[in-house]
């Protein structure tokens, strides 16, 4: 039994929303844009919920770091099956290291047997938080999980990871940090009755100050730009012409 | 391994398909040029419009619409396929008994909540959302007017959509003049059973549904002689016509339903004898909100699609969205949709509040929203030009689907009769 499972969730730009860069290039414009739970976090919540349903976990606690509206993302996670939520409320920019420190502080309070995260968030695509959290806690990590099997009696988890060469299987001692890849599961939808029930589940609010974590940025964003617009292709007359262009124009061969 | 590589690429792939989308993309029918996403005329971040609960309901319905309905709806239309598996999945989320009590598996939401949900669902597939609205209308009648036995016997199966329901009021020769219906329910002296004879027409879900809410004459001519009954599929003497060939709403079957000495026990009568018409009309107040909401979702899809198209389509040296003729049309479309949305939601709130103006507001909202939103689909078709006329693009389908909303749940002419009558009642001159 992993006891308590802690799941980190992030509120991000919806995956179908059109991304607009602010005119001053300081970041992505989030005004009037649909926001949702990061899809990889949905997978992590689903996995934790399944562990609880399989009686391999006693309690699922979700945690999110962000502004007031992050509470809605926590409600969604509770509607999917999490038991209670911790909201670390801040309007400041929180970078992966700060997030990892905050999560480590929450983990020390909650004493989970397992921390589940998405492998990365689709807004910044950093793919750092889980790894840094594992280092800060001194717990083993298994990232990009496509399969998770808990061995309750041995206090271990067997995790199949998607790596470049194929699949790698690791065995880690609990407590551990596992990050979810796309194929770990197919997350459920929150049902209407569960959305109503989620309102009654406890949601505790805390802050970086209360957790004693300095979240001041260590990285400075210089400029955010849209990718270059794709230009129309050209049809070439011959293979020789193609080779010529690759060599002299694109300079790739 | 290609898929794995795409997954490792991470955000970019997910931004296109979503966590669930990638699993299903292999089986998804290729709907040509679906609109990119819901546009949010009212910010999801601002609290003044919807409550947090309503935003959550809306989010679930929108996600279901874009992942489970929109990719397939063109195929369902072409093949005249009634997506019963998808409908049952919708019921798993609570869409089968939106405003039915929780004790029988309902979600116990308000009419306003339901209007928000139907709008979101119809963005992905109008006829599927509309079928759900009809099913919900019957569920409501049983929940509100049914006996404890009827609630227990039917609603658990109906809210989970193990059983589907149809609403049977219209007859071949009694549509707008519904209280002139001819179908009879004669009470048999000895058993107390009712013997139903006659025919119903234009029944959504006919032949597929398991439970039919049937209005039949038990007494005098006119509205006061009508009673309501629940008739189960498989009852002796109950039969169905061939599926009608229709302009739109092809993802759900429409048939005639025939009653030839169909015996119905008195315990299956809903409400008192003579209450059937009143109850049928009350149900339609809510049905009108839902059909209005379904028009809004369909129109919003067309606006989203047209805006994307006009920004991409080049003519006379630039995107056609830069022409004022396009901009004015798009602005008018968006305004029509917003006005419809406000009227439908206000009418829903009036019904929730049992306002004396509710019947009038429901009729006004249905009349306005279904007309205005149908015109939006026509405008969208014009903006897409020749492509809009092709079945490869979705606009003509939404136009065909929305056209019938001006006719059913009471024609828009009947809506005007109701508005006049209610005006005279509320504010006599």
UniProtKB/TrEMBL annotation, chain A:
Gene3D superfamilies: HUPs. GO terms for biological process: carboxylic acid catabolic process. It is found in: Mitochondrion matrix. The keyword Electron transport applies. Residues 25-215 form the Electron transfer flavoprotein alpha/beta-subunit N-terminal domain. Its main location: mitochondrion. Keywords: Electron transport, Mitochondrion, Transport. One of its GO terms (cellular component) is mitochondrial matrix. GO terms for molecular function: electron transfer activity. The electron transfer flavoprotein serves as a specific electron acceptor for several dehydrogenases, including five acyl-CoA dehydrogenases, glutaryl-CoA and sarcosine dehydrogenase. It transfers the electrons to the main mitochondrial respiratory chain via ETF-ubiquinone oxidoreductase (ETF dehydrogenase). Heterodimer of an alpha and a beta subunit. Belongs to the ETF beta-subunit/FixA family. This is Electron transfer flavoprotein subunit beta. It comes from Chlorella variabilis. The lineage of its organism: Eukaryota, Viridiplantae, Chlorophyta, core chlorophytes, Trebouxiophyceae.
TrEMBL record, chain B:
One of its GO terms (cellular component) is mitochondrion. It catalyses: propanoyl-CoA + oxidized [electron-transfer flavoprotein] + H(+) = acryloyl-CoA + reduced [electron-transfer flavoprotein]; (2S)-2-methylbutanoyl-CoA + oxidized [electron-transfer flavoprotein] + H(+) = (2E)-2-methylbut-2-enoyl-CoA + reduced [electron-transfer flavoprotein]. This is Isobutyryl-CoA dehydrogenase, mitochondrial. InterPro entries: Acyl-CoA_DH_CS, Acyl-CoA_Oxase/DH_mid-dom, Acyl-CoA_Oxase/DH_mid-dom_sf, AcylCo_DH-like_C, AcylCo_DH/oxidase_C, AcylCoA_DH/ox_N, AcylCoA_DH/ox_N_sf, AcylCoA_DH/oxidase_NM_dom_sf. PROSITE patterns: ACYL_COA_DH_1, ACYL_COA_DH_2. Its cofactor is FAD. Belongs to the acyl-CoA dehydrogenase family. It comes from Chlorella variabilis. It holds the Pfam family Acyl-CoA_dh_N. Residues 274-422 form the Acyl-CoA dehydrogenase/oxidase C-terminal domain. GO terms for molecular function: acyl-CoA dehydrogenase activity; flavin adenine dinucleotide binding.
